[in-house]
Amino acid sequence: MSSASAAVAARTRQWQWPKTLKSFFEAIGPERAAKFEAVTTDMSSAYIKAVNESVPSATLIFDRFHVQRLVHDALDEVRREEVRSASADKKTDLKKTRWPLQKRPWNLSDLENAKLADLEEKNRRIYRAYLLKESLAAILDGRQINVARRKLDEWLEWARSSGLSAFVRVAGTIEKHREGILPTCAPASTTAALKASTARPESSRAGGMTESCGTEISSPA
After folding, report:
1. Burial of 204 (0-12, 13-18, 19+ CB in 10 A)
2. Which of these, 45, 30, 38, lies nearest to 60 by C-alpha position?
3. Which residues fall within 8 angstroms of residue 66, CB to CB, at 6 or more apart?
4. What are the tens digits of pLDDT across the range 39-52?
5. Minimal CA–CA distance to 78: which of 127, 40, 30?
């Protein structure tokens, strides 16, 4: 199979995964499905539709990885724009900053810390994008939803007024999905979740989905 054909086949299978998720809920029946308190998934409209139609009473929670990915991608977009527009001497200052920018502060080496410290003076736009990325992570690290709600409102205002088009777009996406993002700040013990990730669900030998299949599933007792 050519690489182009493989890519088309992969996309086709991806669009079938929400149907598999719906089939799972149909297979376990409405009584068991009604016991699910929460469903964790990415922000795909197809998954959201499948969950809302199958278990409308469950709390829809958006997986933190995918939320965090939005700002990581936005940060890298800002970095690439700045590198493209920089003069030859300024490009040198931006070399080898991609991975340090993506790391959390506690995971940086001394050299990487120094590079980021230089950015604060040498490229304010990239450094502002970095602070936006880290600030959202700090909000999601919290364990009090009411505090997170207030802080997220402040973050959205900052992102919209940042002058960074990538973060303006991210702010719109997060605003649209904010009620599904905030529950990620709740202690894990308060939520029984079914996680429908973008990994391909596997069928059990009996022909149905199981709690050990590709979608990580845990139902309430």
Report:
1. exposed
2. 38
3. 42, 43
4. 888 898 888 888 89
5. 127
Contact 89, 185 (CB under 8 A): no
Residue 75: partners with Cβ closer than 8 Å, 6 or more residues away: 101, 102, 126, 129, 130, 132, 133, 166
Strand, helix or coil for residue 18: helix
Contact status, residue 122 vs residue 90, Cβ threshold 8 Å? yes
DSSP bridge pairs for 62 = 41
pLDDT score for 187 = 62
40 Cβ contact list (under 8 Å, min separation 6): 61, 62, 63, 191, 193, 194, 195, 196
Between CA 91 and CA 116 the distance in angstroms is: 15
Distance from the first to the final alpha carbon of the chain: 45
pLDDT, residue 188, reads 54
CA distances from 119 to 100, 130, 139, 199 (A): 11, 10, 23, 37
Given a cut of 80, is residue 195 above it in pLDDT? no
Tokens of 211: 């709690």
Residue indicated by tokens 């205002």: 157
CA distance linking residue 181 with residue 97, whole number of Å: 29
- At 55, list the tokens: 């278990």
**Interatomic CA distance for residues 197 and 194, integer angstroms:** 9
